[in-house]
Write a structure and sequence with these properties.
The structure is a single chain. With 311 residues, the chain is an alpha/beta fold. Helix content is 33%, strand content 21%. It has 2 domains: 167 residues, P-loop containing nucleotide triphosphate hydrolases (Rossmann fold, 3-Layer(aba) Sandwich); 110 residues, GMP Synthetase, Chain A, domain 3, CATH 3.30.300.20. The protein is built from 9 helices and 9 strands. Helix 6 runs antiparallel to helix 8.
C-alpha cells in the first residue's frame, strides 16, 4: 500500500481501544472519525470484529482499532473475542483505555488496568460518559478512578463519545503519543473493512436494537450476494443485498421473524436505510433466517463466519 509523503513531524500509528463491554468504544470511534463505521447498541458485547477506523488530521493519521469488550467468556465465540482484544494490545503503538466515568470502577476495570500495566506501551485513559456524571458528583467520581489508576502515570481525559465533549483534546493527545511516520492509508479512507462485512454488521445492529433477551448474542449474519441491479424504465438502478441471519434455536427464529413477519420487516427496513447511507444509493434488501444449533461453540462454523483463532 503506497503511503502519502508528509512533513517530517507528521505522526502515524495504530491505537487500540480497550475496555469492558458497553463502555462506548464503538460510539467513540464513530465520534472521532465523524462517520458511522462501527455498529453500536445498548447491548453489551456488540463489537465482534476487530474493526480499524482511520482518523486523518493535518498532523497525524490515527488507525483506531475497535476491539471486543474484555469480559468473562461463556462459549468459544466469547473466548475468541476476548483473545482478539488482548492480542490487539501487542500490535499497536498506543492503548486508549476507556472507562465508564458515570459508574464506579469495578473488578473488570481493575483486571484490565493490571493487564495493561504489564505492557510497555503508552496508555491514555478516557473517562467516557462524563456528561452523565452530575456536577455535584464529579469530584467523587474522579477520586474513585484516581484510586484505580494510582500506580500508573497514564494521562486521564474526561469526554463524552455521544456528544463529542472533550474529544478534540483527546484526539490531540493521541496524535502526540504516536511515532513520526507517513500516512498509512489514503486520507479519504475512514475504514478498512470490506463492504460485505459492514453490510452484515448493519443488519446485526438492527437485530441488537430491536430484540432482547437471548436473541442478540446468538445471532450472526452472512451476506450471500451483493448485486448491482440496472435501472428499469424511468427508475434508477439499485443495489440488491441478500443476507442470512443465523440463530441457534427455533424459538429465536420465531422472535426474529415476528408475528406475520413484522419483526423481520422492521429489522430489514432499519438496515436498508443504513445501507443506503453507506452505499450512497437505493438498496433492495432480502433477509432469510436460518437455525444453526450451537454455532457459537463450533470451531468450523466460527471460522466460516470469520471468527477464527484471532477473531
Amino acid at each position: 500500500m503506497a503511503s502519502t509523503p508528509r512533513p517530517k513531524d507528521h505522526r502515524s500509528g495504530f491505537i487500540a481501544l480497550i475496555g469492558r463491554p458497553n463502555v462506548g468504544k464503538s460510539t467513540l470511534v464513530n465520534q472521532l472519525v465523524g462517520e458511522k463505521v462501527a455498529i453500536t447498541s445498548p447491548v453489551a458485547q456488540t463489537t465482534r470484529n476487530r474493526l480499524r477506523a482511520i482518523l486523518t488530521t493535518e498532523e497525524a493519521q490515527m488507525v483506531l482499532v475497535d476491539t471486543p469488550g474484555i469480559h468473562k467468556p461463556h462459549h468459544l465465540l466469547g473466548e475468541r473475542l476476548v483473545r482478539s482484544a488482548r492480542s490487539a494490545i501487542g500490535e499497536v503503538d498506543l492503548v486508549l483505555l476507556l472507562l465508564e466515568g458515570c459508574e464506579r470502577p469495578g473488578r473488570g476495570d481493575a483486571f484490565i488496568v493490571n493487564l495493561l500495566r504489564q505492557q510497555s506501551l503508552p496508555v491514555l485513559v478516557a473517562l467516557n460518559k462524563w456528561d452523565k456524571v452530575p456536577l455535584a458528583s464529579q469530584d467523587e467520581a474522579g477520586s474513585a478512578y484516581s484510586e484505580l489508576l494510582a500506580e500508573t502515570e497514564w494521562p486521564v481525559h474526561r469526554c463524552s463519545a455521544l456528544d463529542g465533549d472533550g474529544c478534540e483534546l483527546l484526539t490531540a493527545a493521541m496524535a502526540a503519543q504516536l511515532p513520526c511516520g507517513p500516512q498509512l492509508y489514503p486520507p479519504e479512507m475512514v475504514c478498512d473493512q470490506p463492504e460485505r462485512v459492514l453490510l452484515g454488521e448493519l443488519i446485526r445492529e438492527q437485530v441488537l436494537m430491536n430484540t432482547r433477551e437471548e436473541v442478540p448474542h446468538s445471532v450472526a449474519v452472512t451476506i450471500d450476494r451483493v448485486e448491482e441491479m440496472p435501472a428499469q424504465g424511468s427508475g434508477s438502478g439499485r443495489t440488491a443485498v441478500l443476507a442470512t441471519v443465523l440463530v441457534e434455536r427455533k424459538s429465536q427464529k420465531g422472535i426474529l421473524i415476528g408475528k406475520g413477519g413484522a419483526m423481520l420487516k422492521t429489522i430489514g427496513q432499519g438496515a436498508r436505510l443504513q445501507m443506503q447511507t453507506l452505499i450512497d444509493g437505493p438498496v433492495y434488501l432480502e433477509l432469510f433466517v436460518k437455525v444453526v444449533p450451537d454455532w457459537r461453540s463450533k470451531p468450523a462454523r466460527l471460522a466460516e463466519l470469520g471468527y477464527g483463532q484471532d477473531a
